Amino acid sequence: MIHTQPGGWILETDRTAYALGLNAAGLLTHRYWGERLPYPEDYPEAVNPGAWGPFNNPSHLTPEEFPGYSDMKYIEPCLKVTFADGVRDVDLRFGGADSDSETLRVYLHDSVYPLHLTLEYRVHSAADLIERRATLTNAGDAPVRIERMLSALWHFPGAHWRLTYLTGRWFDETHVRREALQEGVKVLESRRLTSGHHFQPYFALDRGQTTEDHGDVWYGLLEWSGSWKLTAEVSNFHQTRVGIGLNDWDFAWRLNPGDAFTTPAAIAGFTRRGFGAASRNLHNFVRDSVLPHPPDVHKVFYNSWEATLFDVEAESQYALAVTAARMGCELFMLDDGWYHERFNQDSGLGDWWPDARKFPDGLEVFISRVNALGMDFGLWIEPENVNPDSDLYRAHPDWVIHFPTRERRLGRSALTLNLGRVDVQEYLIESLDRLLAAYNIACVKWDMNRNISEAGWPDAPGEPQELWVRYVHGLYRVWDTLRERHPQVIFHSCSGGGGRSDLGMLRRADLIWISDNSAASSRLAIQDGYLHMFPACTMQTWVTDQQQELPLEFRFHAAMTGILGVGADIRRWSENDIQTATACIARYKTIRPLVQSGDCYRLHPADDRGFSALQFVSKDRGEAVLFAFRTHTAQHEPSLRLRLCGLDSESRYTVEGFPGVRSGAAWMNLDLEFGKYGGLHNFESTIRRIQRVETPAGPDVVDHILITEQGE
User: Fold this and answer.
1) Which of 191, 450, 458, 513 has the greatest number of beta carbons closer than 10 A?
2) Enzyme catalytic residues
């Protein structure tokens, strides 16, 4: 709901509100962001700060919604341009607004030049989120050079804020970090042409006392799959703001007369119920409003990569498929090594047709044999990169990103195609469309195993630095066109693991491979961080031969908290291993609706003292499933104690392995202890079903603060 007031607007979701308006100086000013208030007059007016001494004038102290580089402002701006006559600032003035029930558009323009800015705000009421983007239009007859244009600036009153973000590296992504913001600017970014392994375009702010279940938290994401930037700035006047959008490093865009440039969307929200509620709001938004397919139950899959690497041939792949089907897998994913002349990482990349020697009877025959086992068929591709030893590169060496005078450095023996070029886009659309039309392919895993180097575009249509944005626009065009032509195909996104774990990809891919690290004890923390942003129904999780020394059941349980897959060399598994896998897969199928569609509660953070616990609760709160893990702790570490979450207080439930039928309120207020003497042993795990009992079983017995497992 959007309310219009004289000189201002209020955007209300189901539980929150965001207010902005014009101050006395005519600047578009932030007014409020927090819990929804009863009446429109409850929200504060736009502020009109005075100067602070001779060096800080009112414009520097005004919390502008979208400040341009201009005047005596010395903050991180949202917009910086250079006009054709060399003027390098922008003086934005209000020019009107319009709205409907969900969207507000505020129109600004430069005071001298025919440059128009539209700020768009969209309300996602049920998810308590506000979506923002900006569009700059050149209404003049001379080009304008854009040098910075963020998507949004979010304001927070006062200082003393704590920033939560996700950080890591390849093979070790999405670890949760929290740190107090100090005066100055904290920058998180990617300069790699992907959203990156090292940081994710995600943030959360709180006052320092918020927990998983209690306290105020503001949080947000950027819907972008390329280079991005986040600035968290605390001024010397106790003002805090977070800007997020395209990275302005090495970026420029020539905005020609009549053209418009639109930023990616920024999504943000507020909750009074802790970091867990913030995550669940984002999860609901992604499931309900972002994913390309409805959140149906995703199939258990087998991936052949770690079993065979590049040594792909039809009969050995079929042998893997037979065992995978026997275990209960429902989809067979043929990974790298299947296409023309692909015998190692040095050749073939770019030539997207089956290798005749590896599939002498044709790929269609192999797929039909897999289908006859009761499994769908999926295929791995890496279309954005090319080997110099390939038919594609020999025909089009100019199609790669390069500087003419510099060495073309290889990454994983490959160069990167310039997807900013329309002819490259057309080639990928044509070749991949032909592949999907010719074969019964239910699923595509799209990989990207290289970061950019030599970021040149010799014949760029505008500024060469437009590459950073045009590439991603081209990537999206290829994905969107293929999805439109083949709507039944499920796409998986991978970029050396979690190098593109972002909202932009989830507009197009139903699943993300979040890390190449499939070691179960490492994955618990990686998955915990990922679940701060996105739901488990988007999280690919494999059981592999990494950490073979750990119990196979532990490795399966860690993978069962997302979309379960198997990527091990199952030809070498013992019969006992096969039976364990079969039992785990069968059990996963009974609980996957809860994991994939339920509300996620992080009961115990994965980085804390060797324990980890997650709970998934059905939307009607009728049932739930609990996962608990112990990695490595000291011998005399206290046993794991947990309190359940998300149950209906008045309903009665049973908890597998614990005695009694109790109300949801009881289960959520009493500690569950997993064993009296140390609980789970090192590298042990457990899964417990929680089910609502319709028939009351007498009053709750709550005469102890601790409930231990049956038999303890």
Assistant:
1) 513
2) 447, 516
